[in-house]
Each structure stands twice: as structure tokens, then as C-alpha cells.
Amino acid sequence: MKSAISALATGLAVLSLLSNVVDHVSARPNPKSGSKWMKDSRARGGLGGSRSHPIRRQDSGASCAAPVAQSIAAPKSNIWAGLTDAEAAPVVAWLFSQKDLNLTTASDAGEWDNTITLVELMIPNKTDSLSYLDGNGTAPARYAHIQLDHRASEEPYFQDILVGPLPIKNGTTRYEPLTYPYTRQTQGKVRNLEADSDSLSDWKHNVSASIADITLELFNGTSTGLDNDTIDAWGQDPYWQEDGIIQWNQFWGLPTDGFDEGTLLPLGLYFAANLTGRDPSKWALLGWFYNDVFYPTTEEFKTAFYSEGFEKLKPNIGGSWAATDQKGPVLPLDTLTPPLAVTPQGSRYFVDTEQKYIKWMDFEFYVAFSRDTGMRLFDIKYKGQRIIYELGLEEALAHYAGNDPVQSGTAYLDTYYGFGPYSFQLVAGYDCPSYATYLNTSFYTAETTHTHINSICLFESTADYPLQRHSTSDYVSITKNTYFTIRSVATVGNYDYAFTYSFHLDGSVHVEVRASGYIQSAYWANNGDYGFHIHDALSGSMHDHVLNYKLDLDVLGTANTLTSTKLVPTTETYPWSFGGARNTMKLARSHIANEDEGKLSWGENSATMWSVVNTDAPNDFGEARGYRIMPATSPMHLTVQNSTNLAKAAQWATHDLFVTRQKDTEPKSAHPANSQDVHDPIVDFDAFFDGESLEQEDLVVWFNLGMHHVPHTGDLPNTVFTSAHAGLQILPLNYLPGDPSRATINQVRVEYGSGNKSSITSFGQAQPTCAVDLAAYEPDLSNYVGDVVIRKFPFDPNDPYFAITGID
Amino acid sequence: MKSAISALATGLAVLSLLSNVVDHVSARPNPKSGSKWMKDSRARGGLGGSRSHPIRRQDSGASCAAPVAQSIAAPKSNIWAGLTDAEAAPVVAWLFSQKDLNLTTASDAGEWDNTITLVELMIPNKTDSLSYLDGNGTAPARYAHIQLDHRASEEPYFQDILVGPLPIKNGTTRYEPLTYPYTRQTQGKVRNLEADSDSLSDWKHNVSASIADITLELFNGTSTGLDNDTIDAWGQDPYWQEDGIIQWNQFWGLPTDGFDEGTLLPLGLYFAANLTGRDPSKWALLGWFYNDVFYPTTEEFKTAFYSEGFEKLKPNIGGSWAATDQKGPVLPLDTLTPPLAVTPQGSRYFVDTEQKYIKWMDFEFYVAFSRDTGMRLFDIKYKGQRIIYELGLEEALAHYAGNDPVQSGTAYLDTYYGFGPYSFQLVAGYDCPSYATYLNTSFYTAETTHTHINSICLFESTADYPLQRHSTSDYVSITKNTYFTIRSVATVGNYDYAFTYSFHLDGSVHVEVRASGYIQSAYWANNGDYGFHIHDALSGSMHDHVLNYKLDLDVLGTANTLTSTKLVPTTETYPWSFGGARNTMKLARSHIANEDEGKLSWGENSATMWSVVNTDAPNDFGEARGYRIMPATSPMHLTVQNSTNLAKAAQWATHDLFVTRQKDTEPKSAHPANSQDVHDPIVDFDAFFDGESLEQEDLVVWFNLGMHHVPHTGDLPNTVFTSAHAGLQILPLNYLPGDPSRATINQVRVEYGSGNKSSITSFGQAQPTCAVDLAAYEPDLSNYVGDVVIRKFPFDPNDPYFAITGID
């Protein structure tokens, strides 16, 4: 395997051409092998990635400006940006030179070899970061966060290690187990339950082949591992972890029409496998389940099947009902182009593409990107003052239920797959307005840095409703509602999650997630208590999506308090009320004193306002300045209580929101391998709650967004973003003397009266009269590469990214 | 007073020129007196009111189309449209000819005269309407709904009467008390607590003058009724109705800077008046309240005031903090024009302006407009099938609380003022996109029909996020999210409510309300339990906004059932679970059997799905077809329990939503005069719940939208629409075989792979390459007339519309 190592640095160097640090390009060797796809990408990325599609500038003075973002230099280095290739390549080479690690390159590795599955920047501790950001401190030392997949062992495990400080210096660089951010102190090690994925595939095909006669009769198909298989068997993920390692599987149809409807084709025949240990010969078939009857052995199942009166249920078969293409009569006037937003005078925000630093109006922030959770934001400042140190997704679960063992057993923890690898190129004009600015992102896989072209978009929008208005007998005052958005979309298997952060003129930051894509359905028989009957033999299998976010607000420093302002009904007698008591309401003001009180709810009747304030920084009127956290949609948490599936692996899902003390040792509420040991997870969020004081401390709010999803026929073929939506607003609360949106000139006051012409005050607004060339807003999708990293289905953690086309 | 009557028909005829029935214009006499304002309006309205501002069509083939709505003829008459002037004018004349009514024209009436306060179409009974809409029945007979203000009596009252059927035929036309839609059977009569508004004004000025020495010292102002008053006294509305008719008043500063900040200038000095009876000489001053001390007499108050140590609190004084104009440094790049939506190929919807009938994609509906509740929608059909018979606001309350008697006593019921009269002209390019289509609305006041020019807007928008997407290893499929909106905005005193209904390609209808404008604040002293301290001596007075809507869904006919599908935690043992119980979840499906169960909640953890289904109309898979009702924001109802202020006048506010049997005798959940007798309101919503079966009956859902509002500094000068927002979605549930948005051609599928050029399927989408002339999208606000009917503050029910400029 050593022969592969020498190619690594070169391979990483090749990929650096796609990275955001473009000013290094000229110093690098020519690519040894660049695919056509890469060359195309370079051609497009020549200006540094902030332009995604060709916006034509026109010379005519009458033409409107092209919407290119204004450039700016970030005031500080983005200390959360990923490793450069110049940093990463030596780390990988150095790791391969560590004999004790006994590593094999991904392409050469088998089930009993050790591999590198992650090479990424270790996000610096907040403590170190603040001294750099706010003081005269140097930038925090950079470390590589490595995940190793140790499979050369009877007891395979993943291990997180740190390598650094960077850059690598042979002879002095060391690695150490990464333990401090985890509640379980096991040298950063978590067992790998899925080390033998290739063997398992073979084993399942043997099981499937043993009843090929039955699957042929029931489903007109077999699953034997051949290319012409028309059915497949896959199942619960993570595995069941009581009394051995168990996986229930179901047969599913394989799509034949080119659409991705596999999760809509359950076939209702299930089998359980005991997968304990690494010797496939000792794995055991535990039985079959069909039409609510459990058969302990294949023989018993076959005997029953061939008995008189055995009820054979119909299969689910793909077809146009499961295809997403246009169908049906064209809607009236739909052949005319729908409304379209344009930017007459170009973009109104600043981007430092290299540093992933963005400034819009009074907001500025840095963007980071990780394999586990994709895009996140750091150091969000408003009017020059930090308000949020960190904001991003921590984990997402999809917890199903059912009378059948596969749906009942399924509770995905999506960071196991990772949001980063599946944050694909955005579709200009669809995922984001055609005039958006784009950024690239990258992640590590199989000794390469893989870059997602144009996978983050930035744009301004003007809402179809104003921000402020008031009419009187003399005048109307009204303000346009223009806001700024940053978005990425991750398709984790069947579901497409759109992650949106937006910034508003009232000083608020909005967090949203929407879900589209294919549902994971269930076979209908006997599942009536767990979903609607939505197609021939199909249940819209009920499930909860819960997405946990970290919100590290810093209001005028890190010493903050979480206050509760609750509207409560009361009966009161007042000095002026002539003795009569009245039923009214009042405010109950309190705060969270310590972590024992830190598990929170939005409260009955949405009557509780939670706010992070600085009680040492009252405003001129004595109210503590702060930021309020407010649900923008119906709040929710996980329906299932004490989930047997998840055990302790997702304790962040039990309440609407939580508050803890910010600690360098508690940076994340979840670990991507929590699914591998749900009863003893490497990050047990519950362990964060140990009574520490929260009064004027550095606080972290962990809030959940999500949807209770009971799919109906309208989820076929795909769930739509309009209804599968959750959001939260982070709003100034007594933070400024007044509404900051008064600063915008994009407002008008019209004075009228007595039938005379109105008098208009427009505050110096621009009045463009240029012509917008719509051709410039027509995205050239022929250059869309669709990205290239697609989740294998079912997922194989040892070979996680099914196809990396275009990269040699 | 008879002399005035002959002018009435002419006056109404004049106004018909502004109405939407424009084809009658040529048959009418020339206006006797048309103001400049009216003439301007005619010139603009010449095409029938569907165009609000001059969009220039250009002849060049390269220019994009102008966004003029397509015309269409409504399939049926709009039987909910307001009375035409041809109908209304004879009704008014006829009423004046009824000697027993003893009516006086508004301009001539004093406190002891009877007047007409409403002339409006009586919305036909649903029973009658359906036979016309669905069968061969004739259109329902039209009746005029009249409200009379009987003040020529010791016991003044409002009375609702019906006049009809129309047209008026002298000799046969009769009037009858309107009683059948009300739960209280009192001949349509409700007492008028505010008959003596002029006398009260004088009386209050006398009280104020009696302490002019004090107000001068405390506030540097007096309230004596002179033009140069700089303070005013006004107070709780409705009056307190226990132990006499009591009103607490407060002194407030009068704005001097031209801005409408009066509700931000409370002065903290209060007095109570017993206003029982019609003899002002018997009205009694009940005492004073200042800085938490009650003084039963003026003498005692004065004595205290001039005693040593009396604490004099500082007044609230207006200033730039309360003005809405632009202030502060211009934001970076804000001088560039923000993004702007355009319609390259013109509008994509149909409007019958005369019938107020609208068709967009597979949706069609009629618009109605009333004095009490403004805009509402009728007969919403989707794919040719009625889904909603009626959708509209019923009532809105704003319930305050406080340690002071005015805020504690305030619980506005806004239909008393009416939303119709305050639904002003919309500001093109701000309230709605500049390319919107507009409709006029009208209401009756003082023997005239008053028309709001361009007070309803219609437009399409494309959201900044897609409707559907899915990425796979081979392709991405993604759909534009274009939707249709109808909006009106009503400024009821200090608050501006924007009412929005939108229609979506997934078959859903969204209902939204947003609030902006000035808060009604409180004086800070001793009010710390009731709000934040937001300015010098100002409390952001806590209050609940609750807005009740009527939603009459008809799913495949009127025989419907309200079902509940609830996600519930459970512990289950399954045939395949090897004996182990697991903590999981399941669906609890049930339905509301009768009205005793009809008061509903969205449930803990947002886990309850409410749906109106037709159990006799299962889909192909056996699920009842239906429409789901889902909160789009955090749901809420009134915090106050058994409100002493509201007593029985707003029983619709006690829960999140309600379901009752649709009855012609229960058309509305509230009456605009409920505030006049809160203990015995003319519509007691609670009386609707009398155990009637709701299984496969015609149902009405009454749902609440609203906000718990605890204003903070960011509400100064105005609350903003971004955070003061509530919404609900009405979504197909197993109603169609699949997602109907698949019909749109505005989607794309891009196939990619292995670095080759992508293959694009765009389903025949238009690809406009024309040039958009932005000058055509620049609204000409110099023609904005601002409308002309402004609520007097404080409100005077006998002279409700302060200024009707431009109408002679």
C-alpha cells in the first residue's frame, strides 16, 4: 500500500485548483490528471468561485448592472475555514508514515484494513478564538481532526485523533486521541458495527437467494447480487443493539424508470439477521416476517408459503406516480414565464471568497463547512458587535415507527452519513435566484479533497410584503422588506434538506430548514396505526424529523443570562378597581439559574418568551439588552419518549430547546458515530446538564426545528418545501434604542390630503430606469455538474460515497 | 331634514363612477360635484380598476410584456358582492321615507337624532347560495342589511334591520328586524353606550380644565377643547360595564411633529367617569389615579399634589425616536436599488373586475368586502371542485393588561370600528409588488358609498426557494415555487393589519396576518409587571392580538367530518420483537362527534393534525379525502382566562380553534356591537356549542391567528411585519392521487454524469430574452390618494370616520 502514498500529495494538489484559496494556484504543479469535468470547472471558477453562471455585462449605458458581489477583505482570517490542501496533504502523508496506525489507502483497503475516513480542521476552542478575534492574540493553532476506521481487529472501531499543530514537521508532529470534546472518555474510540459491509452484502444475497422461489412469485424478482436484480434487501440503520447486533431487513423494488423512487417500493417481506461479531459464518438468520406473522426459520416460512390459503399480498410497483417529471394537462398560462427577481444595480453585499467572509448592511459573518453538519456560521456581528459566536446544525434525526420491524427499527442519525458530502451544487434559478453569488465547499474522502462547486448561495431578496407601514389621515409611511440569505442544500439519501439563514433590517437572524425529496415509505399491510394508506400497498410511514442547532449567542460579551418572560393569566385587585378583582394577565419574569433547569419548552399557548440577555448591560431604561429566540413555525420535539431505538444517542431531541454553559469540552451535542453505540454514546447530551450556574455565564442554546410528518398522497412523488418547513427567529430584544430598519432609505412617506397631488418623500432612493436583459438571468444549466458524490443506498460506512465521478 | 333626502340618490350616483360596475357609467348623469380627486381617479380607473399605475406597453419586439391581468367572465354572478349604487340609493331614500324610523341625515344629526350607520348587502344564506351555484336555482334574493343608530330615546340602541327583497318597490317593500343570525333574540337591537359622544367630549374637557394647573405643571399642557391643546384625555374602549358604565381615561400628549405617535405619549394621570345614562349633568367623576395612588375626588388629588414630597413623574415627549422617517447613517450599498420582481411575459391570472372573480392556475374564487371585516373570499374552487365556501376574518381583539386602569381596562374588539372603512389604498411597490393588479372596495357612510381605490391587490410571486427538489447520482429534479396572493391592509387606529391569502401549486391555501404601525403603550410607573421599559416613561404594554377566522371547508360536498390524527408516544410489543417491548409512537385517529367536543387545541408538542374530510368519499386507497388545517406559525389563543373585560363578548378567543355545524343562523362568530353589552352580547359564540352532531355534516372551522405581544424598544417607532406575523395553511390531505404541483412546466430535470455536459429537460418552459424596462415598474406614487377615511382617535361611533376628504 505504500505505493499509493506518494500519489497522495499530488492528488490533493490537483484538487486545490478547485479550492477557494485560488491565489496559490500558480505556485502548484500542473495537474497530473484533470478530468474534463475538472477542466470545465476551472474555467468557470476562474474568478474565485463567487460567480456561478455567466451574467453578461453589457456595454450599453441603458443596461442594468450585473449582479456581481462586491469584493472585500475580511478583517480577520477565517479560523474556522477548512484545511487548505497545503495543510491536508502533508497530514495524510504523515499519517501513512505512522507504522503503528497500519493504514491502507481507501482504494486498496478490504474489510480487515485500517483507513482514514476524515481529515478536517479541528474547530478551534472558543476560548482561543476570542483572544485572536477580540484581542491581540495570535490565530489559534490549527490541528487536523482525523477519523480512522480501524478494521484490522476482531473488535473494529472508529477513532478520532488530532494531528498537529500544523504545519506538519516530521520528527516533532504527534497524534493524540481526541477525547476532550466527548462525554465518554474512551480515547475517541467508538465501535464500528458495520465493518464487514461487503461480507454482509454477500450474506444477505445468500439469504435472499434461499427464498428466490418465493420472491419470484411474490415480487417477480430476485436479489442475488447480480446486475439484473430487480429487488434488493436493506433495512434498519443503525442496527438494533440489544441482545446482540440485529438488523431487520425488507425487500424493496429497484426503480426501473430512472427515477429515485426506491424508498417508495417496499415489498412487505422482512428478515432479521444477528450480525454480532466479525465471522459471517456465525451470523444468524433469526426469522422471517410477512403479513403480521413471524416465522423463526426459512423452513417454517416456506412451509407456510406453500400451504393452502397462504395470503399473498400485492407488491408496490414503480411508475409515473413515483416520477417527479411534469405530468398532466399544462396549467392555464403556465407557459408564460412566472415572476422573476432582478437586481437592477447589481448586488448590494460584500464577499471575501477566499476567507468566506460576508457583509450585508450592518451584518457580517464567516462561513465554515464540515463533513458532519455542512455549512455553519461563525462570528456574526451586527453593527460591529458580535451577537452570535456560532450558529449551525448539530444533528438531525428521522425517527420512524410501525408495525413492521424495519420502520419500527429505523431512527436515522444523519450526521453518521454527514451533511457535508451531500451538499451538492445548487441549481441556479431554482434553489436560489438566478442572480445569486455562490461559494464552493469541500470535504475529505478517500485521500482526496472533494469540492462541491457552487454549493452555498448568497443573495438578497425583497419580500412581497413590506417591513413596516403606517397609514394616517395625513400620510402613509412604508418600508421595503429586503433581506439577505445564505443557503445550502443537502440530499441525505431520500430527503433533500434546504438550510437557510437570513438576515433582516430589523436586526434579526432567521434560521430555517425545509425538506423535500422522496419519503421513506412502509408496506401497508397491518401498518394502519402508523400512517395513511397512500398507494397500492403503501403506507406513508409516520416519522418525526428533529434537527438540533447550536446557537451560541454572545450579547455584549460572553457573560449572559437566559431569561423567561411569560404571559400568565391572573386575577388581580388594583388600587383603583373599586374593590373588584378582575381576570387579566401579567408577565412572569424569571431566568434559568443553572443547568438543572436547562431543559426548556416554548410553553403552553406559545406564551413563553426566551431571551439571552446581558444583565450587566442594561439599556438606558434599565432593561437588560438581549436577543430573543422565537419559533417562526409550530415548535416540536421528538414524539417518542425514552426511545428504545435511540436510547441515549439523541438526548437533545427530548425538549424544544436547552441551555448549557459554553465549554470547550462540550462543543457539539452529538457525535456522528453516536449511532454505533446508542446505549453508551460518545457524546451523551444529557451529561451536559450538571448543575453549573448559568447566571451571567457564556451560554449555548440548543434548539430543535422539525416536523411531525405523516405523509399523505400529496407527498407522492415528493414531499414539498411549502409544508415541510420549520424555522426560528433570533430577534433583538431591548438591544437597541429603537427599530434599526429606520436606517434604510428604501422607504417612502406619502403625504396627501383634500384631493391634491400627493407629496412624496423617498429619502434618496435610487430610481433605475435601465433595461434588464433577461437573458442574463437565464441560468446556463448545461454547465451544471450535479455534483458527484452520492450516497449509496443502503449506506456503507466503509465506502460511503457511491460515486466520485470525474476524479481520477 | 327631508331636504337632504332628495340629494341622496344623486350623491350615491356620483359615487357609482368609482364603483366596480363601470359599464353603467354612460347611463348615469354627470356628477353634480366631482372633486379633483374624484376626477383624477376616474381618469385612472377608466379600464375598470384592474390597473393601478401606468405600466407602459412598448412596441419594440424586444421589450417584455406589461403585467396586465387577463380578463375573464365569471361563471356565475358574485352573489356576495356589495350592493350596487343602483340598489343602495333607493334603499336609503326608502328608509328616509319611513316615518316611524324618524331618521336624520348624518350631516344634520345631533345626539338625539336617529341615523343610518350601515347599508350593505346581507350576505345570502349558504343554503340559498348553493342552490344557485350548484343547481338550477336562481340567484338568492338580495336584501339590504341596515344598521340604525337610534339615539332619539332615553335608551339609545343600534338596530340591525333587513330591507328587501331588492330592488325597492314602494308599497310592497318592508323592513324587518334582523334577528336570525344572532344568538340573542332582541329584534337586532344592542344598546349604544356612546350615544353622547359630543357631550362626553365637553364633559371631559371640563374635567381636564379643572386640573389645568396640574397638567400645565406636569405636562406643560392643557386639554380644554381648544385648537391649541397639546394634551388630550382618552381611555378604555369599550367602557366598563359593571356597576354602571365606567370609563377610565388617561392624559396623552398630542404629536407636534406630524407623525402619528400619539399612542406613544401616555402621561400617567388617569381619571374615572361614571357615564351611566344620557344626562351629562349626572355623569360623575369617580376619582383620580396617579403614581399608584387613587384619589376619590379632585380636591383630594389637588391637596396631595400641592403637598410637600408629592412625587412628580416625567412626561413622555415625542421626538425623532417616535418618527418613522429614515434616520441614521445610510447603510452600506443601500443607495443601490434592492432586488425587484418583474413579470417578463405579463400576468398569468384572470380577473373579472366587475364580478370580483379571480382564476389562477387550478384555483378560482370570488371576493367580497364588508364594513365589519373587510375582504373575504367565497366559493374557492380547486380543479373545478369547491373546497372552501367561505374564508374570512370574523373579529380581532387586542387585550391589554396593566397596573393602570386604562391599559387594564382595554380590550378592543375591532369590528366595532370595522376593517372595511380602514382598508385604504395600497402603496404600489411596497404593500404589493409594483406589477400587481388592484381592485377597489367600497362601504357605506353618511349617506354615501365610499370607495377605496386600489385597496385589494392581486399578484403572483416566485419564492426564493423551490417547491420541490431531489438530487440523485444521476439527476436533479427541481420545481419553481410560484404562488398567487390577494391582500388588503386595514389601519385600525394605531395598528396596520395586512391580510394575505395565497394559493399554491401544491393545492394549498395559506392565510396570514401581519401587524405593523404604532403600539398602544402605557405609562411606565408601576407597570413593570406588564411590559418592558422601552423609553423615558414608557411601558411596551403587554397585549394579545387574537384574530378569529371563519373557514367553511366543503370537501366534495357539505357532508364532512373533522378528524384528528395525533402522534402519540406508546410502548408496544410486536410479533417479531422477540418479546421485548419498545418505546415508540403511533397514530391515534379519531373524529369530533358533536359540538360538545368542538373546542379544540393544536395539542402539546404540535402533535395533533386536524383535518376536514369526507368519510363518504374515500380515495382509491380507502383514506377519506380531505383538507388539513395546519398552523404555519406558533399557534395561540387569548392568555386571559374568563376575561372580566370581555365577559362573553369574545368566546371565540378561548381556544386555538373550534368546529361547529354550519347553520344559516350562525353565520358569524361575533357582532360589531358585542362590545356594547359584553355580559349579554348579541352574538355569544359559546351558544353555538349545543351538542349537535358533527359527523358528515356541513362544518365550519373557526380558527385563531394572533400574537402575544410584549413590545420592546424594537417596536419603536413601529412594530414590524417580520416578527408580528401569524399564519395557517389549508392543505390537501389524501385529496388527490399525488402532488398536483407536478403539473407545472416551471420545473427542470438535469441529468449529468461522468463529467459530460448535462442534459436538460425543461418541459417547454418559456425562455424570455426580452428587455425589462424598469421605468415601467416604478410606481407613480404622486397619484396615491392615501384614501380619505381615518379613524378618529379616540373613536366616536356616532361620527366614526374622521375625515372624508374629497367627497362633497
UniProtKB/TrEMBL annotation, chains A, B:
Cofactor(s) it depends on: Cu cation
Protein name (record): Amine oxidase
UniProt-listed InterPro entries: Cu_amine_oxidase, Cu_amine_oxidase_C, Cu_amine_oxidase_C_sf, Cu_amine_oxidase_N-reg, DUF1965
Keyword line: Copper, Metal-binding, Oxidoreductase, Signal, TPQ
EC number(s) given by UniProt: 1.4.3.-
Region spans: Disordered: 28-61
Family that this chain belongs to: Belongs to the copper/topaquinone oxidase family.
